[in-house]
Amino acid sequence: MEKYRQLNIKLTPQRLAILDYLRDNTNHPSAEDIFKAVKKKFPTMSFATVYNTLETLLNKGGIHELKIETGKKRYDYDVTPHHHIICIKCRKIVDLYKDYKIPLPDEITREFELINKTVEFYGTCRNCKKRH
Amino acid sequence: MEKYRQLNIKLTPQRLAILDYLRDNTNHPSAEDIFKAVKKKFPTMSFATVYNTLETLLNKGGIHELKIETGKKRYDYDVTPHHHIICIKCRKIVDLYKDYKIPLPDEITREFELINKTVEFYGTCRNCKKRH
DNA sequence: CTATCTGCAAACGTTTTGCATCTGT
DNA sequence: ACAGATGCAAAACGTTTGCAGATAG
User: Fold this and answer.
1) What domain range is B21 assigned to?
2) Burial of residue B118 (number of CB atoms within 10 Å: 0-12, 13-18, 19+)
3) Which of A21, A55, A103, B44 would you call most buried, defined as having the most Cβ atoms within 10 angstroms of its Cβ?
4) How far apart are CA B77 and CA A92, in angstroms?
5) Cβ–Cβ of A114/B121 closer than 8 Å?
C-alpha cells in the first residue's frame, strides 16, 4: 500500500498486521485492542512491539493519538483533520469531518502561534437515550 | 465559602485544604501536584484521600477533569464552560472564555443529543518560540 | 551485512482498592 | 451515633525500558 511505503520504516509482518488492523478498525482502538487482535495472527506478539510500532508511527505522522479517554490512549489511522463526538454513556466515538474556523481573541494570538485544534463534542447517542 | 457548602459533602480539614489549593492554583494541577502541596499542611495526607476527594468533587460537579495530558489527569476548579490553548513545547495551558457556537451536521444531531463541547487549541507560546 | 526490530520480563508512574481507625454533622 | 472520611500499604493498570537474539532492506 502507498501509505505504508511513505512511512519509510521497516515493514515487518508485525507492523503490517498492526497497520492493517488500524486501517480496518476505525473505532479508535486502544493499545490493548490492537494487541489482542494482532496476537491472533502472531501469537508471539508482545506489548513492546505494539507500543514500539505505535510510537514509530506517531513520529512518522502515520497515525494520531487521541486523548479522549483518561488513563488510556486511543489511536486513529485517519490523520486527516477531523473532530469527534463521544457518547458519555457508551463511549461510542463518531468522526466529524468539518473544518471549523474558530476565531481566537487577540490576547491569545499575540501570545500563541496556533498550530492546530480539536473539538470534542459530548452527548448521548440515540441508543443510550432510548434505554433512558 | 458558598461553593464549598453547596457541594453537600463533609468538609474535613483535608478536603478544605484540597479545595483551597485548587481554588488558588488555576494552573490545572495533577493529583501529585495537589498531594505535594497539601501534604505540607497535613503531613499524614495520603494519595487515597486526594483521589477520594477528587472523585467526590467530580461527582458533585465541583471540579472538572482535563484530558489534556495522556497518562496523567489534571483538575480544574473552574467549572464554568471554557476552552484551553496548550503550548506543545512547555505544556503551558491558558484558559479561553469564549462561548463558541459550533454547528453540527444534521446526521449528527439526528444521532446525538449534544450536552457540551470543548475546544483544545495547540500551538507554541511566545517563550518557546523565542528559544527557537 | 548491519541498522533496526522483536519479544520477554522487569520496572515505572498513576490510579484504585481493602480495611481498620477516626470524625463531621 | 453513625454514615462516611482518612491513611496506610498493597495491588492494579497502562505504558516504558533493557537487552539478547532475529530480520528487513
Assistant:
1) 2-76
2) middle
3) A21
4) 28
5) yes
Task: Looking at the structure, tell me whether residues B63 and B127 fall in a common domain.
Answer: no
Instruction: Note whether B89 and B72 are same-domain residues.
Output: no
Q: Record the pTM.
A: 0.93
Q: What are A88-110's pLDDT values in tens digits?
A: 988 999 999 999 999 999 999 99
Q: Which CATH number goes with the domain that contains B118?
A: 3.30.1490.190
Q: Say if CB B95 and CB B82 are below 8 A apart.
A: yes
Say if residue A131's pLDDT is above 80: no
* Near-strand D residues (CB closer than 7 A): A 10-13, 30-32, 47-48, 51-52, 55, 71-73; B 9-10, 12, 14-15, 42, 44-49, 52-53, 56, 70-71
Rounded alpha-carbon distances, angstroms, from residue B83 to A125, B15, B53: 23, 27, 24
Pick out chain B residues at pLDDT < 50.
Answer: none
The answer for residues whose C-beta is within 8 angstroms of residue A39's C-beta and 6 or more apart is A45
**Chain B partners of A85 at a C-beta cutoff of 8 Å?**
104, 108, 112, 114
